[in-house]
């Protein structure tokens, strides 16, 4: 990683943290909770994901019951998150794979794995793509894996951290290499906050936010050469 990238990313991270506050890590969820929740979050918003997850936990008292639930009933339970048939199938298949592999519903074994091995194990599960795997590895296991969602993808390009037009898959690779390991979790969360408040897809309120002078997409402000990459 070039020193300029590291310097710029640390500066962006610090400014966003000063502006939005330090992101907290949820601590009361298991690895399987994360797995199921990230499947539910595909193509929906956080509110509907949380509703579906809470309904699932209320309806079924164990992961065994979820794995063995009638498919239609499970679809109905998580309907609010959208794509019910696809997500119900993915959840039940994932639970089956974990149980058959581990003899229980637990992902703790992943903690011992190297990052590439853990990514491969997770993405071998049908319906678990690089983003879902990255969320589980970064959020739950604290591994240096950068989840790239739509906000992270858009803002990283606007900030010049990845080239314009970089694919989501390639962005995972580049950002994982460029974002210092100790910042990955909070940088990911802070970019999401920034994407929701100032750096929206259609309209960016640059001058009201904390990054205008660092951003290659904000033309009104001159760049700080020290931080240009
Ligand atoms: S300065 Fe504007 S374009 Fe750049 S990251 Fe902030 S809101 Fe987005």
What's a concise summary of this model?
The protein has eleven helices and no strands. The chain is mainly alpha-helical.
Care to describe what's here?
This protein is mostly helical and 229 residues long. The chain folds into two domains: 3-23 and 147-227, Helix-hairpin-Helix base-excision DNA repair enzymes (C-terminal) (Endonuclease Iii, domain 2), CATH 1.10.1670; 31-140, Hypothetical protein, domain 2 (Endonuclease III, domain 1). 56% of the residues lie in helices and 0% in strands. It contains eleven helices and no strands. It has helices at residues 3-20, 31-41, 46-59, 63-67, 71-77, 84-102, 115-123, 130-140, 150-158, 168-178, 184-197. Helix 9 packs across helix 11 (184-197). The chain is globular and about 55 Å long. It starts with a helix and ends in a 32-residue tail after the last helix. The structure holds iron/sulfur cluster (SF4). Iron/sulfur cluster binds at residues 155, 158-159, 198-199, 204, 206, 209, 211-212, 215, 217-218.
List keywords for this structure.
mainly alpha, 2 domains, 56% helix, 229 residues, disordered C terminus, Endonuclease Iii, domain 2, binds iron/sulfur cluster
